Amino acid sequence: MSKETPGQPLLTFADADRSPLSIRARALVFVDPRSRRLREEIEQLAPRSLPVLVEGETGTGKELLARQIHRGSDRSGLFVGVSCSAISKNFAEAELFGHAAGAYSGSVSSRAGWFGSANGGTLYLDEIGDLPLPLQVKLLAALENREVTRVGAQQPTPVDVRLVAATSIDLAKAVSAGKFNARLYQYLDEGRVELPPLRERPADILPLAEYFLGIYAQRLDLPLPLISPAAQAALEAYPWPGNTRELENGVHFALLVSDGDEIQPQHLNLPPLPGYAQLAVQLRRLAANDEERDHLRQLFAEVLAG
Ligand SMILES: Nc1ncnc2c1ncn2[C@@H]1O[C@H](COP(=O)(O)OP(=O)(O)OP(=O)(O)O)[C@@H](O)[C@H]1O
């Protein structure tokens, strides 16, 4: 028998800004031209009451962006973050929408659920594609009607929630495959932002590395080492499949194993790059924008086709 009980906290970042242990959301390092454009987009989107869909690979900083959107809005309620892939299967509806007292054996008091906790604020749903289809329908109804009916309750409760959702999969494809609700997709499509993978905004890599180094050195009370030119080159050449989170972990590790003076390539413990990957990195660097990248792609296709 499952030991799960409804409404247990899964992931809530309501207090994260105040937590001294959390380095999340202290700052957004956005230096690359693509990131700067994104920042402008966010500044325009944030104060509007539109829902937002943040698309990006794992570890790119989608949650941080969502927090930034909440900060830039005038919503006085909480930022509540929930990972849809972590929601309990047995109690998904109660987790999200809450339950009335006595709805389950042992539930003496009622609970607001994640949706209700974000009343007046922002609900951040990470990996929204993992939300079961029946709940997607209920979510849309709650957003559109501005009310939720808790599990076991007779009457709906009014709620005012702004939804910021994130996905690392192509939701349009999920809609075509019948795995994602088409109307919820349309609802989210109004405010869509794409967070590019770290390898596509190379000018962010070193500033982020320095930022993380500074934060971890301070947190661990260690001297702040320099990043040697060779280590800088290694950081810039690596394609970062795990994006900013992988970079953060890599820098943290390097700080711990370095002698405190200078980070060297071996401290970063990066896997050696195959030749084609090195070439790809160089080419990406050569192409300053999407247009040039497309041009290079075409040129290569022509050359390889003989
Ligand atoms: N631009 C940035 N500036 C500073 N820190 C960043 C930036 N982007 C990401 N980070 C940091 O990188 C880590 C990963 O970011 P985050 O958790 O927001 O990624 P995510 O895309 O939501 O990941 P997932 O897809 O796994 O949910 C966090 O510690 C975050 O604070």
TrEMBL record:
InterPro entries the UniProt entry points to: AAA+_ATPase, AAA_lid_NorR, P-loop_NTPase, Sigma_54_int, Sigma_54_int_dom_ATP-bd_1, Sigma_54_int_dom_ATP-bd_2
Give the record's keywords alphabetically. ATP-binding, DNA-binding, Nucleotide-binding, Transcription, Transcription regulation
Give start and end of each Sigma-54 factor interaction domain: 28-256
Task: Supply the SMART domains for this chain.
Answer: AAA
Q: Which SUPFAM superfamilies match?
A: P-loop containing nucleoside triphosphate hydrolases (SSF52540)
- Answer whether the UniProt record assigns the keyword Nucleotide-binding to this protein: yes
Q: Which domain of life is it from?
A: Bacteria
Entries under PROSITE patterns matching the protein: SIGMA54_INTERACT_1 (PS00675), SIGMA54_INTERACT_2 (PS00676), SIGMA54_INTERACT_4 (PS50045)
Q: What is this protein called?
A: Sigma-54-dependent transcriptional regulator
Organism name: Metapseudomonas boanensis
